[in-house]
């Protein structure tokens, strides 16, 4: 039974708390949030303790591992603190919005063997994972084209947007990682991007986009397209398509249940797609925790690590340079 | 180039005329209808001749083959006349509504080698045919259950119903034949049926049903279910499902085109199914003619013959006996 | 927090144990099995107690409710004991294989207000439930035909079969209940059935069938078809189709994830269906428990009750009479 | 009855011949090919005449209209000759591989009211057309993203490639036009492209690619992605996806028939997609001719005209500039 501490009790922190509690091999030992009320709400009438500070958590010998779900600006600090304290950490993405800070964090933890897992939950989605496994098994021969579609059901509020570092750092970051997961050893070396506030033109005032198409090339020329929108009226749209020399694979959208409707204007109509990431990736989040527990308990697990967080951000940086220059930009790590 | 005469220029006759004209190996040499205007409309400004009578057609040495699309009551007479005249005939189903008349016709043409093909067009539908071929190739092992769904888009008028001989002789007849086509050598030996006027309760006044479920058993116990309705608001519903010891096959519905709609209440919604048999089975009707031409020109073709028409009607008779008795009734040919 | 006792720690009992533990409003207080090792395995190192006997459970004031997952022959006894002890009970189906015993149990508990819920878990499947809700909301007008397909992935062992009371009492019982759930107030009044050992002909020696088609009629003539097989090589096949005067609804099969494969011989190929009921109906079992907890805590819940268990069995009895007589048999409750 | 002459009797010419003959409002009056045997094969034993030269066709007062399906290098000449002779022309794409030649042709026919239709057949595909109509009707609100997938089943031979002007001029040209068709008045103003010989690396020797991703932007920022491959092992892949502010539309692939297979490794598997354009776009080619006949007979028809051919080529030119420069290139017409 792994004693896990949770830092950050917002929407995604609450979800982590539920998952840790439901998983037989983990226990939610304590929680912390800068807003004490949020931490207390997560504790409820359970036996979870309230930690006075992150420092208290890192210092507590009873804590086996830490999940960081606090605001992005704190991620790098907590990763460094966790590693210094020898506590394995599962940290939400992104590591930081500032690439230099991420590089500094990388330097600070260099050489550690304390496990650092980044919260790229989509790698654990059974459909995406099955696609990756089929790819790796050579089921479609050589991969030539990869298309990742990722559209949120509805745009976040203006407050969120102002602190999120831009759609491509905030939202596309998942797709950069998912693409890298599918590509295996073959890293994107060049990025091109276009983006605009097409759904909410007012976003122009804060220099933000809500629709983007991003194309990447790997060294041998494989083509990757990421396709984002902040609003999909039919639900959270999450698809991966891998085209190969011997076949094609798609990881398709999922509905809540299997009801199909047949009427005068539509046949075999499915229900709207699962909203939102907590529903769509529920299984993925649970499998992510399972992998973290495996990692921490030394059973080995294939998980996204610090370097994956850094490389996804490097792709976002290149995409922003491409948005500004209008040309393909090399990826610098 | 086969010179074909057409008797009967109603809705289905007009469709046959178009198909004969569009097919490079056949020519619509002449047409006849008891309503001269209907025949003239089919002729139009083409070089098709008008025949004064069916007799004139059967006597005309320039006619290579005859398609009979006149009213049901004339079918058996024209089959007998065609055979007597040595003219191959493609006759619309059913042969007759009166089983005794069909048996008499059978006796009258016994021993002939003049080709007599019955218009069970669905055997030529590419999906149904592919299902049959996969079955015959052993793709799903032993067949154990067969389900044929056949629902018309909207009910015919009262006039039609009064002359059609009852839904099970008029509409289900196609499904009896399709089931036999799928079963191969293994004939249904027992039929049970339930039916009621569920969509239009007024049909009770003319002792007619508009929804039916019919279950048949073959000698080794294979189970066949036919499932009919005179009204399907989402379009013409035509499906076959074959369950086997090693897999399942379905011949699914078809839409006019591939548009899918995704919105707030429905995703991946297809358009309504093709209405009606002329649209849904367009390809089947064309392939039916191709087979008829092959048959007439001695190239061999697997087509439904007189005996198939008789056996489909025998199943309808057993179904009506079962409706009356409430029990499984043996099939008598 | 509801303290629940579990009687019976076989495959389905273990699943109930997991669900009770994972649900925040319930606690697995104690377990019992005639095989002590099975109960101990469920206890593991948890704080669940081992009960020496069912009687000890019924007598324990700390137990709020009981789940019965022991062998069928004990169900009616435990229901009676639970009711006598004032303990709400969720009992697996069927109540008993002997209809007379079920009637005796009905008499024994007559007049009680102790909640008795029968484990017809499929009523809680989100797809089936959404279909029922759409039906009840009049989305497809008047229901005219209902088709329930239920095929197990692979046949049970001979030992199981010898004690299961026949496929129609053991397996179809779920479909009888599901049909009744969809029909609402309109009860089937007549049943006809055909069945045979088509997959494993050896079953004839134990007078058992492995494929069946059962057709039921309600008083106003609605038509219901149940379609069963003990083996479906493509996975657990669980579908409901409801045909109405204004549209059609289908509750379709579910796959483990959304991977689609496209290759030289197949396109858009899904993965095999979820095997078996524990996987396919995982959500349904959890929602069933949620409803039970609601029921016990007086919050109201729409659940299958004793009378539903009795009526499903009455339909099975009529089906067996129909198998023997070859005719439609009236339903006697 | 429109008397149509056909110039060019290769694969696509033969298809046009069949369509002209099958269409009741047109007659294949005469044919010409530089290879007399090809023209004779099309004539067969029909009443179609053989024309000695294109000039003879343009001079023949009995010819109402001309279809040009000869090699690309002749297209502009024949368009000019047809216009000069006052003969309406349906010319296969592209107008020419050399943009300057296309501009010269434009100048040569400036001011004419002789109908010139370019063979962008995909505009007439019922699925693509229904998508366009739904878009135009505002069904998905404002269009924000458009994705056109176009993958040929297998690569053409080296000879074909050497004369085809590059994949983006030869194959993507259709997708440029299809995108413009969907966009309506809103023209792409900027193009970016990546391409590589990923399937057949040997193509590098002839400076050719076989996989490409092309992204375009319209003035208000709408995003368009074209996605091409010369080989799709699962069949001819032809899809359009339109994402809007209020919904999404997809024009999906089509199979030959509706057979679905269910087995131990795959469920609901469709058959491979229709191969190749003659099969997939059969209906589109027929509807294209119908529109041409409407246009010629003054009944009005919405067809792709010379300017559409020119603008599609201008997009290809910009794409090639982008391939070379690595940056977005403006579109110059």
Automatic annotation (TrEMBL), chains A, B, C, D:
Pfam families for the chain: GFO_IDH_MocA, GFO_IDH_MocA_C3
Oxidoreductase in keyword set: yes
One annotated GO biological process: NADPH regeneration
Transmembrane segment boundaries: none
Record domain GFO/IDH/MocA-like oxidoreductase: where: 128-249
Gfo/Idh/MocA-like oxidoreductase N-terminal domain mapped to chain residues: 2-120
One CC-aspect GO term: cytoplasm
GO molecular function, one term: oxidoreductase activity
InterPro entries xrefs: Gfo/Idh/MocA-like_OxRdtase_N, GFO_IDH_MocA-like_dom, Myo_inos_IolG, NAD(P)-bd_dom_sf
Cross-referenced SUPFAM superfamilies: Glyceraldehyde-3-phosphate dehydrogenase-like, C-terminal domain (SSF55347), NAD(P)-binding Rossmann-fold domains (SSF51735)
Protein keywords: Oxidoreductase
Family named by the database record: Belongs to the Gfo/Idh/MocA family.
Annotated protein name in UniProt: Inositol 2-dehydrogenase
Organism per entry: Pseudoponticoccus marisrubri
């Amino acid at each position: 039974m792994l004693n896990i501490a949770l830092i950050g009790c917002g929407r995604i922190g609450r979800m982590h708390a539920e998952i840790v509690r439901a998983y037989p091999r983990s226990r939610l030992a304590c929680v912390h949030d800068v807003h004490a009320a949020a931490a207390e709400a997560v504790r409820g009438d359970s036996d979870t303790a309230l930690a006075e500070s992150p420092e208290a958590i890192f210092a507590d010998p009873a804590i086996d591992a830490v999940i960081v779900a606090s605001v992005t600006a704190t991620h790098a600090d907590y990763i460094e603190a966790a590693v210094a304290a020898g506590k394995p950490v599962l940290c939400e993405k992104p590591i930081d919005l500032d690439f230099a800070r991420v590089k500094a964090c990388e330097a600070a933890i260099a050489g550690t063997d304390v496990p650092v897992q980044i919260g790229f939950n989509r790698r654990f989605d059974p459909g995406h994972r099955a696609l990756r496994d089929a790819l790796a098994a050579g089921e479609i021969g050589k991969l030539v084209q990869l298309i990742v579609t990722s559209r949120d059901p509805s745009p976040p509020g203006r407050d969120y947007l102002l602190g999120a570092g831009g759609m491509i750092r905030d939202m596309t970051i998942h797709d950069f990682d998912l693409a890298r997961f599918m590509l295996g050893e073959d890293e994107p070396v060049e990025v091109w991007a276009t983006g605009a506030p097409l759904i909410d033109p007012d976003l122009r005032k804060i220099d933000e986009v809500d629709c983007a198409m991003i194309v990447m090339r790997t060294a041998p020329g494989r083509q990757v397209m990421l396709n984002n929108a902040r609003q999909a009226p039919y639900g959270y749209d999450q698809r991966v398509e891998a085209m190969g020399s011997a076949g094609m694979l798609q990881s398709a959208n999922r509905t809540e249940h299997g009801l199909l409707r047949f009427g005068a204007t539509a046949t075999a109509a499915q229900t709207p797609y699962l909203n939102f990431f907590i529903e769509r990736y529920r299984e993925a989040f649970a499998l992510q925790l399972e992998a973290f527990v495996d990692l921490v308990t030394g059973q080995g697990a294939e998980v996204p690590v610090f370097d994956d967080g850094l490389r996804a951000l490097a792709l976002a940086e290149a995409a922003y340079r491409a948005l500004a220059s209008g040309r393909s930009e090399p990826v610098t790590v």
